[in-house]
Each structure stands twice: as C-alpha cells, then as structure tokens.
Amino acid sequence: MSEGLRQSALTDLDGLRARHPQMFEAPLKNGAPTIGVALLLVALFILGVVRLEVTPLQILNGLGQLGTFVQFMLPPMAKSWAQAWLFLQALAETVAIALLGTLLAATFAFPFGFLSARNATINRVVQFISRRFLDSIRGVDTLIWALIWVNVVGLGPFAGVLAIMTADVGSFGKIFSEAIEAADRKPVEGIVASGGSRLHEIRFGLIPQVLPVMLGQILYFFESNTRSATIIGIVGAGGIGLHLSEQIRTLEWQSVSFIVLMILVLVAIIDFLSGQLRFAIIGNRSTAV
Length: 289
Prior knowledge:
The chain is an all-alpha fold. The protein is built from 13 helices and no strands. The longest helix is centred in the middle third of the chain and has 36 residues, at 81-116.
C-alpha cells in the first residue's frame, strides 16, 4: 500500500468502517464457526476415548500380545508343498472373483452413470431416481452383501463375485456420473451445431472424453477388490480368505503368515501392473491433449 493511499484510508476510517463493517469485525467473531466445529470434534474425540475405554495400558498390553503372535508366525511357511499349491489355487480364485466382480459392476454401472449425470440424463426424475438407487446400493458394505449372497446362492466364489459386483455398482455409477458432468461441453456443442442427435452427443461428444477416466477407475477398483475378495472369503464367499479363516481357527500361525505374505505380494504385483496400465491409458491421452 502506498503512503498516499494509506493516509487517505486513515482519514476516511470511519466511513470505511461504516461501509465495510464485516472487514473490521474481531478475528474471533469471524472464526467462531471454525472454532465451534473444532471444539465439537475435540469433544467427540474425548467422548470416543472414554466410551471405548481406550487406555495407554491397554495399548501396551495389546502390543505385547501382538509381539507374541508375530513370534508364532515366523518363519512364514506352509505345512507341505500340497498345502502351498492349494493356497496358490485359492489365491488365483480370489483374483478371478475380484476381476469378474469389478467388470460386471462396471458394465452395469455404465448406463446408470449417464442416467445420473445432469448433462446426459433423460430428465430430472430419472436422474433423481438413478442417483438414489446408486446411493442405496453404495450404502451397504461389501461384507454385508457377501453375507446376503452367501445365504441366497450358497457358499462359494459365485457369492463373492455377486457381492463385489453389487457393492461396486453404486460406487462406479457415482464416479462415472461425476466424470460425465465434468466433461468439456465444447465437443458436444459442436455435434449439436452440426445437427447431431442426443445419441450422437453421448457417443461422439462425451464417451471419448470420459472413457479413459472410467478405465482408470476400473483398474483402481480391481486392485482394491483383490483385498476385499480376501475379506469376504472369510464369511464363505470363496477364495484365499476361506483358507485364511481356517488357519486362524486352528492356530496355524505360520500358515497364516504365509497366506498374508502371498496376499501382500499379489497386491504389490497388481498395484504395479494397474499403475502402468492407468498411465498408459490416461497419461498418453493427457500428452495428446
């Protein structure tokens, strides 16, 4: 601020205060909502610690018990080559559950993404119903869907595929609709100007823009679902989780650590491969743009 402008502001200080009172309010008053939210969060944190009986002694005792389990788990190994081969087959089954569940979910969510997007839906009523439908599905966790499908179709990997598919349809639909709404309007306007139909707008104006984003999200969900498929296996939905649960129940801790190690290696491999594929799909397009 120049000296002249500063002097002018000081001379007309009362006028400035009258015209812009909010600029002269005390900082505490301006930040009252923020302070209130912060105090509420602190109160909730303290209430949680008290209600859940979280104590430093309990944490220390738990760490000691964890150390004992780690000793039982070392070294990670299966009891026999036959058992290792059985675990490997179950791990492949887990990957298949995650892959099929993810692809089916993306397939079913694809039309719902357009129906839920403001710039591609048929009308507001369809958009509202589609969004509430996706929200309802997304509100139920994969593990709950696994318990439901196990009771419907029985134990096995098919229930796992259905559980992942059902849980991810809602998430994919929301992500796809947001990607469609964020798409650039200029290609669509060009198609409209050249006499293109509504279907042409979607086919040639929106899908080329959002398809790389959708593929990147599908790859990310496949990686995440590999871990989810392990968890739902514990409730009878097939895969390596079923064997993990059995080994924990029989206190075969070295086999447990062997299975966990296999899962970690698998997730690392999938993470690397999906990352490379996402870069190939999205990165090249960004460069082209």
